[in-house]
Structures are given as structure tokens and as C-alpha cells.
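User: quick one, sequence for these C-alpha cells?
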């Protein structure tokens, strides 16, 4: 206990080093060309994030409003990380400076109206109509989430201090603001849902695990395992991502199963008449190896997640591996030692506390009514009938086992056929590719973002074309950029605009591109750095920004991918000048590859998980029956899961796409623990039928408790406001229920049939060997 307490302190210390990762490195591998193109070539060179301050009111062209917008501009421009601020007020100041030499917003309402009417092209992107005005604040594209959050908070403070006139609504929105709100909402939602899950687990432990003393103990045991997991994450540098946050309900479901198995066996040994010490040794001897084997097979199922091309799925697998090991350690040491201590106190208790509970559970202590100690000369061991009266769950499971054994052939044939149908149906299950549909549709920040997009009529998503060139001032190159940009806007319906350094050059040169490189270089020197930074870097990198509007929502991922391919074909058709290489990147391209990697590799991950678990079982048992009997039920679960998802019209999303590997790791544990108890009873002298009855009635009760806690825990996720998390919770609940069904309906007749078939084959071989020996002996006599 002292060591455990020390480890808890170290874990809390290490947990402070856990980093929340949400950048490009969580979506694509750092070694991939896509990451290098987007993160290094575009994000760190050309990208800027925009925060939009939108003002709504009856008339946005008044002097009072422009003065307030000017005050906002001046305050926001001082915020660290802000690269530029554009608003109608800033344009008015520039026009006024050019006309009168005064860098301020005109004091006359008439002057403001005249300037806006004289130069409408300067205001059209910022004054959308009579009632909507925008202030566009650019921040560094490479800024971290924390830096972006600080900037947005300062913008909110500045907008309050700018003192906008009454009656105007101020909306702060933009992609960075939306993403920060989504992450914040996800964290709040997950914390609340985990709290609900914990409460539901308490309820189900009261209901299902009431045949033992201290039935709520598995919950703090598994929470200790989670604390250890946080500590290991901090020391090993495993980051926290939006996907890995969903690992903790999985770990609670698996870890509580370990705690329940140890708890159930320890109480069973004590009911059989053993002392605290004897029960502890017997539990470690018989249950710890079985649970360890189940853990190893679970871990092998999770190893298949490492084959994913998406880094956050690999981190998800690392977190699961760390977590199951920590939960096992917490259950083996803290859980069993606590039970040992509680039982010792109960037996030594001079005031009779716990006596009624102990007697109800068939446990006699040193202070029992007859003054006698528990009968330790004839302890009830594996193979004997427990001394306590079977409960409702045990009786129900025995009846169910009898039915499954009676109709074993019918059950196994139907299971096999429906499994094949489910695997076939899984191929036609749609893949959810609309990222907007994965977040709550009633989020205020999302509503504001969509409102802004609708008013701006087609702005938001972009394709970024990066050109590596020998000379950025080559007139032929600029002519090609201009021609290509015009072609894309005119001929591609989902490309609404194209901007590049050419636009700034033409603006400085009366609407034309200079004919010589020297003229272009001179214009480059005159263009303010804040304007040209988005389009040119040094003399070898240029950027063309293609505005694709709301294509992510309109076309979804498949449509974006097709649009990217069309742009690539156009580039091949309209060949750029010699020495120019073209790369298409952007956040939309990253999302395409990420979701493609998540969804298309799910079958391979599941198949690899099956092979790894099978090989692991063969290495551990060196017995084909013991290797196949846990695998076959899980294959049935995978098939049934596809059938249920198809019937309920549930689409795959980035989280549910890994469920095949997850359920293989989680569900195989049930069959392995049941199989271990079955062969333990066989070794104690029981025949096949009696052994499976005994295994189901003892281990099965604990499996019902652990399975029910897992189901109730994941049920909380179904009410999540995030459709992606809700769908993950629903699919997990379905798969865990299916795993429990196959454990109690398919596994008993399957293990008995396979075990008896092996015996029969062994018997035939032995007879053949005896026959050959007798013939050999007869030939020798002759």
C-alpha cells in the first residue's frame, strides 16, 4: 500500500506533462510528404488564420460605427500574434490620408458616404450590405491552440472596450474560433459523460455484483489504474488527442472486468472456507494467469491499431496498451490487498460489524455465532459444488447453458450463416465524411460560423497551390498564374475565387503585368510585407489561394478529393513554365487523407488483430482448440456488428472505424476467462458438460457484472451532443452486448463440441496405435 501511494503521487506529478495535441501531426505522419507540404511548406510559410468580428445593425455605414471600428482596430493590432487588421475603418483612414494627409476616420458623415461610394471595390468584401460589416483579423497560422485562445479572448475584451453604439450585435467568429469552441465543448462533454458513466456503473454494481461483499470496490480500483495511465502518459510523452479521450471509457470497461474477476474469485474462495491468506494465494494462483492471458490477447488486438496511417489512432493504441496493463496491476495488487485487509478486519472485528453481510454470503468468521472457526480442513475447491445458495443470475445462466447444449448444432449453424451475412453487409455500410455533421449542430459558435458563411456567400474552405520556382519575378510565370487562376474561377463551379501575388502586382501596375523581371522586382519591394507575406516567400516560393467556399459541407470528402484531382489535371493540361513544380495542399487535403486512412484500413486492422490474437493463443496454449475457441465467437461478433449497423443504418466515422480491433480486444477476454475456468474444472475431475455448467455459473456471474458495467458506462456516451461520440457509444454498447451473447450462447456448445471432438479423435488414434501394436506383435509371434 505504501508503494501504491508513492506511485499515485508520482502519477499526479507526471500527469502535468501530458500535452493536448490537435495539430497536423495528429492527422498525418510527420514523415509523410503531405505533412511536409502542409505544415512546413504552407502553414509555416503562407498560412494565416482569420478571426472575424461581424457587426449587425440597421445601418453599418454611420460615423459612430466607423469610429468604434477604428478603436477596435487600434486595440486589436497591439495584441501579440495578430499580423494585420482590415476593416472599413482602416480603408477609410487610408483614403483620407491619400486625400488630405490625415490618417483618421473622417468626422463628417457626408465624407464617409462619399468615400464609400467613390471606391466601392475597396469595401465590397468588408461591407457586405447595409446591415453587415466585417473586421478581418489575421493571426499567425503556426500559432498554437493556447495562443489562438489568448488572442480571441483579447479580441473579445477589445470589442467590449471599443464602445460600439447601442443596437448593434457583435459576433466574433471564424475557423480558429470554431475549432477552439469545439475542443472546449468536447472536453466539457466528455467530463460530464464520464461522470454519468461512473454513476451508472455504481448502480449496476449494486444490482449485479451484490452477491459479494464490498461490491463497489472495483470502481476505485479501475480509477487507480486510470491514474497510473495518466502518469505513464506524462513520462513517455504520449499526447492527449480528441480520439484518445474516448479511450478512457474503454479502459474503464476493460479494467473493471479485471477487478471484478479477482474480486469474485477471492470471495468465492472465502465462501468455500478458506482464510484470507489462503483465498489470496488461491486467487493469484488460479485467476491471475487467466486474466493475464486475456490481457495479452486484448493487447494483441490493440496492436493492430498501430498499422493505421493516422498518428492519433496510433496514439489511441498506445494509450489502450498502457491502460490495460495499469488496470491489471491495480487490480492484482491494490484490489486483492484491499480485499485481504477488509476480510481480515471483518473476521477480527470484535463488535460484529459485517457479520450479517458475511453470514448472508455464506462466510463464517472467527466471531461466528457458534464460536467456531471456519472449517478449513475441507475447503471447497475447483470441481466441488459451492456451499452458498445459487442466485438468480447463476440459475438463469445454467438454464441458458442447458438450452444451448441441447440445440448446439442449430445455434452454431445459424451463427455461422448470420456472421457471413454480416461480413458481406459490412462492405456496403456508408462512411460518414461530412465533418460538420460530426459536431453538435446547435453550438452557438457553429451557428455564427454558418451565418457568416451564408452572408459572405461562399467563403471558408480553400485549396492552396504552392509553386516552387527558380525566379519569382519571371513575367512568363506571373502570366501563367494569372491565366490559370482565371481559368479555374470561370470553369470550376466550386472555385469562387483565386488570389495570388499577381493581383497585388497588377494593382500596383495599373491592372497589367510588367514585361520585365526588373519591373516586377521593383513592385515587389513597394508592396507592404503584410500584404505579400501570404503569397510569396523569398524568391522561390509562391502561393495561389483557391477559395472553394463551403465545399467541405456541400461536396463532402469524396467531392473535395475529386475537385483536387480536377485542379491537378488542369495544371497538367495548362503546363506551367519550365522549372516550376506544383503542390496542392491545405486543411481540406489533410482531412481527405486522414479520413481515407481511418476508414479504408478498418478491414485490414481487424484481420491483423484476428491473426495476432490467434498466434498469441497458439504460443500460450500450444493447443488448437484453446486457440480457436475464443477467436470464433469474436469473428461472429464482428459479423453480427456489421449486420446490426447495416440494419440500423449506422455509418462508419473516424471513431467507429476502429471498432473491429477494439471489440476483438475487449470481447476475446470474456471467452478466454470462461475457457480458463472450464479447463480448470476439467482438471479437477469434471466431465465436459459439468465443467461448462460450473464455469458459466461462477465466472459467468462476474462476466455479467463486468459486461453490464461496461454497457452502462458506454450508454452515457450515447447522449453526447457530438454525433461522432454518440455513434461511437452506440456501436460499442451493441458490440459489448453481442460479445456477451456469444460468450453465453455460442461459446458453451462450441467449447464442448470442440473438446469432445478432440477426445474422439485422440481415442481413434489410440485405438489405431493399439491395433498396429497388436498386429506387429502377431507378426512377430508368427
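Assistant:
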Amino acid at each position: 500500500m505504501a508503494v501504491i501511494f508513492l506511485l499515485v503521487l508520482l502519477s499526479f506529478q507526471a500527469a502535468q506533462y501530458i500535452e493536448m495535441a490537435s495539430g497536423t501531426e495528429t492527422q498525418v505522419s510527420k514523415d509523410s510528404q503531405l505533412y511536409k507540404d502542409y505544415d512546413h511548406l504552407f502553414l509555416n510559410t503562407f498560412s494565416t488564420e482569420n478571426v472575424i468580428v461581424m457587426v449587425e445593425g440597421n445601418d453599418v455605414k454611420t460615423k459612430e460605427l466607423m469610429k468604434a471600428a477604428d478603436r477596435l482596430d487600434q486595440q486589436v493590432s497591439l495584441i501579440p500574434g495578430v499580423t494585420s487588421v482590415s476593416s472599413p475603418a482602416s480603408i477609410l483612414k487610408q483614403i483620407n490620408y491619400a486625400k488630405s494627409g490625415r490618417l483618421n476616420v473622417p468626422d463628417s458623415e457626408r465624407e464617409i458616404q462619399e468615400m464609400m461610394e467613390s471606391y466601392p471595390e475597396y469595401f465590397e468584401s468588408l461591407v457586405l450590405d447595409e446591415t453587415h460589416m466585417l473586421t478581418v483579423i489575421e493571426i499567425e497560422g503556426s500559432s498554437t491552440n493556447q495562443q489562438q485562445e489568448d488572442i480571441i479572448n483579447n479580441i473579445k475584451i477589445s470589442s467590449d472596450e471599443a464602445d460600439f453604439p447601442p443596437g448593434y450585435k457583435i459576433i466574433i467568429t471564424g475557423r480558429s474560433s470554431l475549432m477552439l469552441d469545439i475542443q472546449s465543448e468536447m472536453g466539457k462533454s466528455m467530463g460530464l459523460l464520464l461522470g454519468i458513466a461512473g454513476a451508472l456503473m455504481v448502480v449496476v454494481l449494486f444490482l449485479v455484483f451484490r452477491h459479494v461483499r464490498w461490491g463497489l470496490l472495483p470502481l476505485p480500483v479501475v480509477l487507480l489504474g486510470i491514474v497510473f495511465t495518466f502518469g505513464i502518459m506524462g513520462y513517455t510523452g504520449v499526447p492527449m488527442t480528441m480520439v484518445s479521450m474516448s479511450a478512457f471509457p474503454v479502459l474503464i470497461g476493460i479494467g473493471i472486468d479485471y477487478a471484478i474477476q479477482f474480486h469474485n474469485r477471492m470471495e468465492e474462495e472465502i465462501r468455500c472456507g478458506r482464510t484470507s491468506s489462503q483465498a489470496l494465494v488461491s486467487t493469484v494462483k488460479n485467476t491471475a494467469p487467466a486474466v493475464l492471458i486475456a490481457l495479452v490477447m486484448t493487447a494483441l488486438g490493440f496492436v493492430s491499431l498501430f498499422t493505421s496511417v493516422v498518428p492519433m489512432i496510433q496514439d489511441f493504441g498506445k494509450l489502450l496498451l498502457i491502460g490495460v496493463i495499469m488496470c491489471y496491476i491495480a487490480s492484482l495488487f491494490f484490489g486483492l490487498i484491499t480485499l485481504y485487509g477488509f476480510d481480515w478486519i471483518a473476521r477480527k472485528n470484535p463488535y460484529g460489524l459485517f457479520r450479517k453481510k458475511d453470514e448472508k454470503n455464506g462466510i463464517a468468521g472467527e466471531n461466528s455465532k457458534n464460536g467456531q472457526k471456519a472449517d478449513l480442513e475441507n475447503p471447497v475447491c475447483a470441481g466441488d459444488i459451492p456451499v452458498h445458495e445459487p442466485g438468480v443470475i447463476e440459475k438463469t445462466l445454467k438454464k441458458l447453458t442447458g438450452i444451448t447444449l441441447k440445440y448446439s448444432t442449430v445455434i452454431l449453424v445459424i451463427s455461422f450463416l448470420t456472421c457471413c451475412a454480416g461480413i458481406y453487409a459490412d462492405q456496403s455500410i456508408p462512411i460518414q465524411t461530412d465533418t460538420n455533421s460530426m459536431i453538435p449542430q446547435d453550438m452557438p459558435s457553429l451557428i455564427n460560423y454558418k451565418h457568416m458563411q451564408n452572408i459572405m456567400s461562399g467563403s471558408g474552405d480553400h485549396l492552396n497551390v504552392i509553386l516552387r520556382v527558380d525566379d519569382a519575378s519571371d513575367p512568363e510565370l506571373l502570366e501563367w498564374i494569372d491565366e490559370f487562376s482565371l481559368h479555374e474561377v470561370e470553369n470550376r463551379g466550386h472555385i469562387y475565387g483565386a488570389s495570388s501575388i499577381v493581383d497585388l502586382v497588377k494593382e500596383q501596375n495599373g491592372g497589367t503585368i510588367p514585361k520585365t523581371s526588373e519591373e516586377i522586382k521593383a513592385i515587389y519591394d513597394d508592396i507592404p510585407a503584410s500584404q505579400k507575406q501570404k503569397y510569396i516567400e523569398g524568391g522561390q516560393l509562391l502561393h495561389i489561394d483557391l477559395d472553394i467556399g463551403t465545399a467541405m459541407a456541400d461536396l463532402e470528402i469524396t467531392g473535395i478529393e475529386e475537385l483536387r484531382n480536377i485542379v491537378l489535371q488542369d495544371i497538367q493540361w495548362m503546363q506551367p513554365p519550365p522549372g516550376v513544380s506544383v503542390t496542392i495542399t491545405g486543411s481540406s487535403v489533410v482531412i481527405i487523407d486522414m479520413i481515407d486512412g481511418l476508414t479504408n484500413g478498418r478491414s485490414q486492422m481487424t484481420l491483423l488483430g484476428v491473426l495476432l490474437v490467434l498466434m498469441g493463443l497458439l504460443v500460450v496454449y500450444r493447443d488448437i482448440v484453446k486457440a480457436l475457441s475464443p477467436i470464433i465467437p469474436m469473428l461472429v461478433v464482428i459479423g453480427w456488428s456489421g449486420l446490426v449497423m447495416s440494419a440500423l443504418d449506422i455509418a462508419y466515422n473516424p471513431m467507429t472505424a476502429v471498432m473491429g480491433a477494439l471489440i476483438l480486444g475487449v470481447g476475446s477476454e470474456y471467452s478466454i476467462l470462461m475457457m480458463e475456468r472450464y479447463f480448470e474444472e476439467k482438471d479437477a475431475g469434471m466431465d465436459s458438460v459439468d465443467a461448462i455448467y460450473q464455469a458459466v455459473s461462477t465466472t459467468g456471474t462476474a462476466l455479467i457484472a463486468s459486461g453490464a458495467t461496461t454497457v452502462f458506462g458506454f450508454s452515457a456516451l450515447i447522449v453526447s451532443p457530438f454525433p461522432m461520440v454518440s455513434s461511437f457509444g452506440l456501436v460499442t454498447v451493441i458490440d459489448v452486448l453481442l460479445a456477451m451473447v456469444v460468450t453465453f450462447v455460442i461459446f458453451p456448445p462450441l467449447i464442448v463440441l470442440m473438446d469432445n471432438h478432440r477426445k474422439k479423435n485422440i481415442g481413434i488414434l489410440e485405438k489405431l496405435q493399439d491395433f498396429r501394436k497388436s498386429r506387429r506383435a502377431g507378426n512377430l509371434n508368427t
